[in-house]
Amino acid sequence: xxxHFPCIFSFFIYFLNFFLVSVRGSYLRRxxxxxxxxxxxxxxxxxxxxxxxxxxxxxxxxxxxxxxxxPTMS
Length: 74
Hints:
This protein is an all-alpha fold. It has helices at about 5-40, 45-65.
């Protein structure tokens, strides 16, 4: 049983990493969508301004997305 412990532990770390990243990603997408709707409410009338707002919002979203855990292969 102890010989399988590193394998089980690494699987647990990868599962935890996947879960945290997916939860955080969905939260960030929801938050970005909400703030995009709030900040670009007036921009919807003109498509170019809306695209400019969306691009600016997308840049900030990409910079804030990161991984919680980065497990290493042993």
